[in-house]
Amino acid sequence: MSRIKEEKVTEKLNLGIWRKLFKYLSEFKNSLIFLAFLMVIVAGIDSIMPLLTKYAIDNLVEKHTTETLKTFALVFFSIVAVQAINVKIFIRQAGKIETELAYHIRKMGFKKLQELSFSYYDNSSVGWLMSRMTSDVARLSEVISWGLIDMVWAIVMMIGFIGIMLFYNVKLTLISMCVVPPLFIIGMFFQKKILKAYRSVRKLNSQLTSDFNEEVAGAKTTKTLVREDENLNEFKYDADKMRHSSVRAGIFSALFLPIVISMGSIGTGFAIWFGGNSVMLHGLSYGTFVMFISYTVQFFDPVSQLAGTIAEIQQAQASAERIISLVETKPDIWDKEQVVKIYGDLFNPKKENWEKINGDIEFNNLYFSYKNGEKVFEDFNLKVKKGDTIALVGETGSGKSTIVNLLCRFYEPTSGEILIDGKDYRERSLLWLQSNIGYVLQSPHLFRGTIKDNIKYGKLDATNEEIERAAKLVNAHQFIIENEKGYDLEVGEGGGSLSTGQKQLISFARAIVGNPAIFVLDEATSSIDTENERIIQNAIEKILSDRTSFVVAHRLSTIVSADKILVIKQGKIYESGDHKQLMKMKGYYYKLYTNQRLEEKEMESINAS
Ligand SMILES: Nc1ncnc2c1ncn2[C@@H]1O[C@H](COP(=O)(O)OP(=O)(O)OP(=O)(O)O)[C@@H](O)[C@H]1O
Ligand SMILES: [Mg+2]
Q1: Which pTM value belongs to this model?
Q2: Burial, 81: exposed, middle or buried (Cβ in 10 Å; 0-12, 13-18, 19+)?
Q3: Would the CB of 405 count as within 6 Å of ligand 1?
Q4: Where are the alpha helices (DSSP H) in 396-491?
Q5: I want to staple 307 with a disulfide (CB 3.0 to 4.6 A). Which of 54, 168, 187, 533 is the partner?
Q6: Which atom of ligand 1 is nearest the CA belonging to 395?
Q7: Where are the alpha helices (DSSP H) in 408-560?
Q8: pLDDT tens sequence across 192-244
């Protein structure tokens, strides 16, 4: 099972990161300001409540009169009512902002993931990207909406409390507030410990989830490799660690509140001691005295709240950093500004300016190496005429997939050029090229959804007739209508409910539904039964007939009729010619072909006997 990388967490609060993040969230500025404004009112009202108590004691209780009681009660109830409405509004508002923020950030991330090129996915695992888009986004939107509320509330409360107290008695304020700084420091300490423990619980939780995931996905492989025992041990180890962290988080939480309350009580004690004396000796009113006690008792609330929020923001900073780094990743392959001006971009193509493609292809002095330094081509040259079928054969790792990936501009040449209809393909837009190429990957992937949806991926506005025509052309129509649901059959995640051959036929239909001028087939090595093989063979022949095609073939029967067969060896064209010419040469291709024929004959005789 794979280990999730240890997360690097920046401890210091870094305002730069947050400022950058808010740049991407500028459309939320007004709603966030509104939310903060609401919280100022809520906290303002919260902080004058003890003041009302003071008024009641001094003007009603002390004076033994009920003269103003009615007005007082009225004022009191209206304030409480206003507060109730405020609370309802802010909870709804914060919830709304949280959801919208999450949606906005996910959309931003998703858009970026679509812009990024193949090479980005070489180095980023699905799991990593998934947790960016789920847990990081959730944590951020929560901390921005609810964290803002808590922070504004706590700060306004503290300012309000201190302001009112100072107004009534400076000395008493200073005395009872002397416990606040240590209270804050202790609060921060505990909140950090608690959050850290919870973070570790969360991390282990996602580790366990990913273990589960892998376990389920790889269950069959595990069984064949007899790895059940090892996997179970790894799982137990993580589960134990998770229990340990959970207990730790529990202990810290349990300790935190009593300590904070004790500290707060010390402040209250000071207030009572000095305040009591002042009442007796210096004419401090009873109401003021009670008010002071009530402020000091309540003071620990915003203090611990603020400490908690700051700790949470610090923890969420790592999420913010990761999201920003994702959003700011520059795709390796991108259209130049002049090209975008004419052809439009990925999301707003200007199809009216697109030239019709012809299908001539030329590789010119092509050099290519992968980012990790793996040199694949040095001075590769190839000319392909419109409508020709080029077959690529060769050992594994010789560079066949790389050639077709370069042609589709999933990667770009390190130097040299690829010309389509005589023009460097970087002079036209990515979307133009890729809309004109039908590509069946070495390991075709079907998406969750119906067969129809899956074929439609090749041309989003395809009509039912077009879909059916494509399916018929690739011999998929027959097996599709043989099931009850026909084109509306759910294929299951990754096409799980279809056979390998059926998946392949659907991916053919998807590749040609847009009637592309160029067709690329990176044939899978997996063997298919002879019945299906014949169907697929026939489908391929029909597809290839009137397009410029590149076929990477493992079963040579697929390509005997190709216009040109290239044997690729270590990034070089080792042999080239049509089937007859290559057989005459009695070289690599000849050996490969005769061996395969021999194997096939053996299989046939085994099956026959
Ligand atoms: N994404 C990648 N990053 C780095 N190196 C790569 C990447 N893809 C392929 N390579 C390397 O480039 C070389 C050519 O690989 P390529 O996939 O083109 O081979 P292939 O001929 O298609 O092999 P196969 O028949 O197994 O599909 C290999 O040495 C391979 O290790
Ligand atoms: Mg390959």
Answers
A1: 0.74
A2: exposed
A3: no
A4: 400-407, 430-435, 451-456, 464-473, 477-482
A5: 187
A6: 25
A7: 430-435, 451-456, 464-473, 477-482, 500-512, 530-544
A8: 888 788 778 877 877 777 777 667 767 767 677 777 777 788 788 888 888 88
